Amino acid sequence: MTKKHSILDREGLKPAAANGLFDRRAFFKGGAALATAMTGYTIGNSAAAQQLVDDPWSRGIGNRVQAYGTPSRFESGVARILSNPNAEPRTQHGRTPHHLINGTFTPNGLHFVISHTGNPDIDPSAHKLVIHGLVERPLVFTLDALARYPMVSRMTFLECGGNSAALWSPEPLQNTAQEIHGLVSCAEYTGVLLSTLLEETGIDPRAKWFIAEGADASALHRSVPLHKALDDAMIALYQNGERIMPGNGYPMRLLLPGWEGNMNVKWLRRIELTDEPALGFYEARTYTPILPDGSAYSYYFLQEVKSFITHPSPGLALSGAGLYEISGVAYSANGRIARVMVSADGGQSWAEAALQDPVLPKAFTRFRAPWRWDGGPAVLQSRAWDEAGNVQPTRAELISRRGEASRVPRSPFAFPSQHYNGPTSWRVGEDGEVTNVYA
Amino acid sequence: MSMRSTQRLATLVVLASAAFAASAQGPGLGIPIREADVAAWDITVFPSGANLPSGRGTAAEGAVIYAQQCAACHGVNGEGGLAAPVVGGDPLTNGIDTPKRIKNFWASATTLFDFTRRQMPLYTPRTLTDDQVYALTAYLLAINDIIDEDTVMNAETLMQVQMPNRNGFKPRFPAMMP
């Protein structure tokens, strides 16, 4: 796979790994010649620009300003993809279009949503949060009351325990990063720390867990160790600066940074402190991956270190040989991302990717690596390490521990198992099309 | 979990006990409520049997309710349809994607009672009486050969049910378990 490129010498770039990967600093130091080549997913190099004209939109007054802004009409394809668009009587998923956005924050309208029984239409003036059970005094908090409490803001990723489940398939499914990885997003949340409210209710020393429950039709409930409440659990009221949207838990949700998405109970109305977990449906039956020996994991609290490449990826065909930026997101429940390595030859050789500042704990970190595609076959992979020393497993390592599905799932939206944090391998064909492979 | 967390918990308990009315951090705007007034929301049934309501039901009674309220989605004989089957289940060693059923997977009969009372029927949750939920629980356990058809389900007998896969689980992160 290793090839020498005379262009490297001409542009003064240091190769960092085989098949066209450069040192991660190349884009920062490489100058304008590199920058002009970076946008090309749909545009090829052309010999000369055409004569410039004064376009119609420049020659008259534009559209009125909207009270609540919406994207350009040319961006209408940048939307969540829905698993159940007609709201048939089963769970509905909406997945984030990772290949069509960039940076680290997910816009609220594109944040992933899973609703098991629809989104309740909650009147915030009537909504109440009760904290009771093994407390010294049970208390009810209104939204108006919570507005008076000291708040904190933090960025955090939120990932469904079933995200990336398509990669448990014994054969690679041909789907986009959105379809495969769209059940993870990242946002800034603002709200009141749960520990602040527990200071007011007091805690009975017998309490070991709290049960969080929503005001939706399913009254969805999950059991959370009390130590998480005293660490960084938040009653989140705002997401990316505005009130949390109905699909994400309006007017308040539990936020457990880094922990399994389903535990971050939406439409939160009740917290009960207890000395035992509830063993509810979702923790007893749904988010309990079966292992090859027939046993099953329970209490899979953490979304472990993981990364995937968003650019390029299926649906973003390369438009000819030349320089591209490989980029993607990395995240871990165990703190900050420490390092991301990128391969262009299916994991045989690796180059260290640049990490976009700021690198925040339990949040998306955007990684970038300059790459010259020579027009031949390439297999792109990323692998992340977190500051606690955890490393994203290879697919072989993960499969050896966890097994893989016994049959090809009927859809990328099916959940043959949960908690896949292995790598994703995108093959770039000679036609520039990107496909999902196992490597 | 860790020693540090335990110490923090202890510290918080002490702080909360010493000055609960005048929180150091918050304005103290929580409105006191009696546990009795939480009752309408306090529906969680625990694996120890805590919070199981009074009431009773049999599989025969449950069969009637099932036909009226459940069969349209879960199948006349529990074989599934729009919703998952509620009878049977393959060995979990068949694969990590083996469909999880009451018989081959669910660890506790309290989960079955809680889920049925909490979330079923899908479009009219929490309309079943406790007697009806006991009856449906009896029916579902009986058609899966987990209890005899004539076993009455109530708060006492439910706790005697031995689910086949009750020992099939291990916590993913034992050190994080309280």
How widely separated are the two ends of chain A? 14 Å
Q: Determine the oligomeric state from the structure.
A: heterodimer
Instruction: Figure out the total of helices of chain B.
Output: 6
Q: Based on helices, strands and strand pairing, what is the structural class of chain B?
A: mainly alpha
Output the CATH homologous superfamily of the domain at 128-286 in chain A: Oxidoreductase, molybdopterin-binding domain
Number of strands of chain B: 2
The CATH homologous superfamily of the largest domain in chain B:
Cytochrome c-like domain
CATH topology of the largest domain in chain B: Cytochrome Bc1 Complex, Chain D, domain 2
Main interface by residue count: A-B, 80 and 69 residues
Shape of chain B: globular
Helical coverage of chain A, percent range: 10-25%
Major sheet summary line of chain A: 5 strands, mixed
Mean pLDDT of chain A: 93
* Low-pLDDT residue spans of chain B: 1-6, 13-23
Can you tell me the CATH class of the domain at 128-286 in chain A? Answer: Alpha Beta
The radius of gyration computed from the alpha-carbon positions of chain A, rounded to a whole number of angstroms, is: 23 Å
Looking at the structure, the CATH topology of the domain at 128-286 in chain A is Sulfite Oxidase, Chain A, domain 2
- What is the count of β-strands of chain A? 25
Describe the global form of chain A.
Answer: globular
Helical residue percent of chain B?
A: 25-40%
The computed structural class of chain A is: mainly beta
Description:
The complex is a heterodimer of chains A (439) and B (178). By secondary structure, chain A is mainly beta. In chain A, 11% of the residues lie in helices and 29% in strands. Among the domains of chain A are: 128-286, Oxidoreductase, molybdopterin-binding domain (Sulfite Oxidase, Chain A, domain 2, Alpha-Beta Complex), CATH 3.90.420.10; 306-437, Immunoglobulin-like (Sandwich), CATH 2.60.40.650. Chain A has nine helices and 25 strands. Chain A is globular, with a radius of gyration of 23 Å. The relative contact order of chain A is 0.17. The model of chain A is unreliable at 1-10 and 29-40 (pLDDT under 50). Chain B is mainly alpha-helical. Chain B folds into two domains: 3-38, no CATH class; 59-158, Cytochrome Bc1 Complex, Chain D, domain 2, CATH 1.10.760. Chain B is built from six helices and two strands; from the N terminus they run H-E-H-H-H-H-H-E. Chain B has helices at residues 3-18, 59-69, 71-74, 109-119, 130-143, 155-158, and strands at residues 31-32, 169-171. In chain B, helix 2 packs across helix 5 and helix 4 (109-119) crosses helix 5. Chain B is globular and about 55 Å long. The N and C termini of chain B lie close together (6 Å). Chains A and B meet through strand 6, strand 7, helix 6, strand 10 and strand 15 of A and helix 1, strand 1, helix 4 and strand 2 of B.
